[in-house]
Design a protein that fits this description.
With about 180 residues, the chain is mainly alpha-helical. Helices cover about 70% and strands about 0% of the residues.
């Protein structure tokens, strides 16, 4: 794969993340509130799954994660402006988005690491409750779904080569619900 990653590839990966994140099953069957904040959290969760692919080895050298991050946050900026936010409000919200992104990525990563090392998904489930469900009470089946969904998709993507993932724009596993 060439060093320079085609902008169209980045756009398609991001589009795949967003389209997957909008799956009605997440909101109807697994009781995620259909709000702007929750939709943001589901996008960040799917982004985490893609970014996690690049944490070790030769994959770290890829420019794809940075290009995807830049594209994603440019889209967030554009969406805020389309919603009528001015420059000062957009700048303030973007700082909040970036902080939220890094916090969530860190917490999902810690939870996944704990699961992989100790076969303990309590931290991952705690992150799911905090971020996806905003610490609201939710059925354990929904939390279990998300934990299994994250773990299985990380494994699914990490078991493919970079070229295979790019060929299908980091496609996620089909939901069998």
């Amino acid at each position: 794969m060439p060093n320079s990653i085609n902008k169209l590839i980045i756009e398609n990966i991001y589009t795949n993340i967003v389209q997957t994140s909008r799956n009605k099953i997440f909101f109807l069957d697994f009781k995620v509130n259909d709000t702007v904040e929750s939709r943001f959290d589901i996008i960040i969760l799917h982004s985490f799954i893609v970014f996690y692919f690049f944490i070790d080895g030769e994959r770290k050298k890829s420019e794809l994660p940075q290009l995807l991050f830049d594209h994603m946050f440019a889209d967030f900026d554009s969406n805020l402006r389309e919603m009528g936010f001015g420059d000062i409000a957009v700048n303030k919200r973007m700082k909040q988005f970036i902080n939220a992104f890094y916090g969530r990525i860190s917490n999902y990563s810690k939870g996944l690491t704990q699961f992989k090392k100790l076969n303990d998904d309590k931290m991952l489930k705690g992150t799911i409750i905090k971020n996806i469900y905003k610490d609201n009470n939710v059925e354990i089946e929904s939390i279990n779904f998300w934990s299994e969904y994250i773990i299985s998709n990380v494994d699914y993507i990490n078991n493919r080569s970079l070229e295979q993932n790019i060929d299908n724009f980091f496609g996620f596993k089909q939901l069998n619900v």
